[in-house]
Amino acid sequence: MAAKGSTGEMFKALARGTERVAEPVDPGASAPTGQAPPSAPPAGILAGREGAIWEVSSGKKITRVVRRVNPDRCRIWVRHNRRYDLLSPESCADLIEGFRQQGGQEFPAVVRRVTDGGPYEYEVISGARRHWTARFLKYDFLIEERDLTDLEAFRLSDIENRHREDLSDYERAVDYLQALNLYFDGSQKQMAMNLERSEGWLSRYLDLARLDPIIVDAVRDVREMTVNQARVIKPLLNGKTRGLVIERATELAALPEKPAAADLFRVLTSVAAEPKAVRSNAPLEMAATKETGKVFAVARRHGRGGLIIQVDGNSGAGKEEAVAAVTAMMERYYAPSK
Predict the structure, then answer these.
(1) How far apart, in whole angstroms, are the C-alpha atoms of residue 256 and residue 296?
(2) Which residues, at least 6 apart from 279, have a Cβ–Cβ distance to it below 8 Å?
(3) Of 34, 155, 179, 253, whose Cβ has the fewest other Cβ atoms within 10 Å?
(4) Whose CA is closest to 145, among 35, 240, 26?
(5) How many angstroms separate the Cα of 243 from the Cα of each of 60, 212, 260, 276?
(6) Where are the domains of the chain?
(7) CA-to-CA distance for 238 and 315, rounded, in angstroms?
(8) How far is CA 259 from the centre of its chain?
(9) pTM reported for the whole predicted model
(10) Helix 150-161 vs helix 188-195: angle between axes, to the nearest 10 degrees?
(11) Which helix (DSSP H) or strand (DSSP E) does residue 279 occupy?
(12) Torsion angle, CA of 148/149/151/155, rounded to 10 degrees?
C-alpha cells in the first residue's frame, strides 16, 4: 500500500474537482446557457472543492468536461453512502430552494460511465441529493464524469460527505461496514489507515452498523441513530441482558407508531436495570407526536385484564392527536380477540 501521505493527498485531490470547460449540450437534456470556457477558475459554479484543477498525486493537471444531462439517464451507485429511498422534499428542502434561486444546479455531481448496458449511461458517485432534486424539479442534472475504481469512488464519496450534517451516522456506518470487506479484506487497521482515522473512531461506526436488525427495525427512522447510542447499548447486548433488550425491541418494533431513536434507546438501556416486577409491567404500546416524534402516550397492563394509559401533557401533542391515539390503543386492547 502507498505511503499514508501520498494516498491521502491523492484522494483529497480527487475530491477537489476539475477544470471547467464548455458545457456540452446532451441530447437528453434541454439547451444550456452556453458560455465560453473561463480563462481562470470560476468563482461561482465550480468554486471550492468543485473548482478549477484536479491535481493528482503526480502533479499533472487533467481537464474534465462538465455537462448537463437528463437525470433519468443516471442511476445511483449501489455502494453510495446515502439512503436514496429516504430522500424527500423535506430532507432536500435546502437544495430545492437553491435550485430555484439559481435557476438550476450550481455544483456538478461526480459520476462515472455505466458499462453493463441497460437504460442508464452514468451512475452517481457523489451527489445523490442533487440527483433527487433535479428529478423532483424536472431540471437538467449537472455532472462531471470521472474514471474511478470502486475504491476511489468509495474514498471520494466519503471525503465529500464526511463532515456533512445531512448524512446520518447510520448511513455512514453501513457504508463503512460494506467497504471493510469489499476493499480492505476485513482489516479495520488497514481501513482506518486508508481513511486517515483511528481504529477506535472507525470501530464506533462499525458497532452502529452491526446493531441487531430487530433494534434497527424498532426505530421510526434509521437516520436518527447515532454512534453514541450504539456505544451505550453495546455492553447490554451480551450475557443475560441481551435477551431483555431484544425482547423489548421486538415489542417496540411491532407498534403502529415506532418511537424516535432517542426514545427507543432510552427504553432499551433502562430495561436491563429494571427489577423483574417492573419489567413485567413493560409498555404494551406507545404513541409519538407526528411533528416531533416525542412519545406522549404509553399503555401498560394493570392487574388482571386491566389497562392503564399515561398521557404526557407536556409532550406537545394536541388534544385531537391524543384522543385519537388513546382511542386506538383501547380499541386494539379490547378487540374481540382479546
Answers:
(1) 14
(2) 244, 271
(3) 34
(4) 26
(5) 58, 12, 22, 13
(6) 4-161, 169-209, 283-338
(7) 34
(8) 18
(9) 0.62
(10) 60
(11) helix 276-279
(12) 0
User: Counting every residue, how long is the chain?
Assistant: 338
Cα 93 from chain centroid (whole Å): 16
Q: How far, in whole angstroms, is CA 284 from its chain's centroid?
A: 30
Type of residue numbered 25: V
**If you search the block for the grid coordinates 480527487, which residue do you land on?**
14
Reading the chain (338 residues) residue by residue, the pLDDT tens digits are 444 444 455 444 444 443 444 455 455 554 443 333 334 433 333 333 333 333 444 454 555 678 999 999 999 998 888 889 889 999 899 999 999 999 999 899 999 999 887 889 999 999 999 999 999 999 999 999 999 999 999 998 888 877 776 788 999 999 999 999 999 999 999 999 999 999 999 999 999 999 999 999 999 999 999 999 999 999 999 888 898 899 889 988 888 888 899 999 988 988 866 555 444 556 667 777 777 777 778 777 666 667 788 888 777 788 888 888 888 877 777 765 54
Taking only Cα atoms into account, the Rg of the chain, rounded to an integer number of angstroms, comes to 25
CA 324 to each of CA 21, 177, 286, 318, 321: distance values in angstroms, whole numbers, following the listed order:
59, 41, 13, 10, 5
Residue pointed to by grid coordinates 442533487:
130
Bridging pattern class, strands 122-126 and 109-113: antiparallel
**Interval 226-240: pLDDT, tens:** 999 999 999 999 888
- Which residue carries 491523492 as its cell? 10
Amino acid identity for residue 104 in this structure:
G
The 3-class SS string of 164-219 reads CCCCCHHHHHHHHHHHHHHHCCCCHHHHHHHHCCCHHHHHHHHHHHCCCHHHHHCC
> Cα(first)–Cα(last) distance of the chain, in Å?
64
Q: Which residues of 118-132 are buried (b: 16+ CB within 10 A; e: fewer)?
A: eeebbbbbbbbbbbb
Q: What is the DSSP string of 208-267?
A: HHTS-HHHHHTSS-GGG--HHHHHHHGGGGSTHHHHHHHHHHHHHHTSSSPPPHHHHHHH
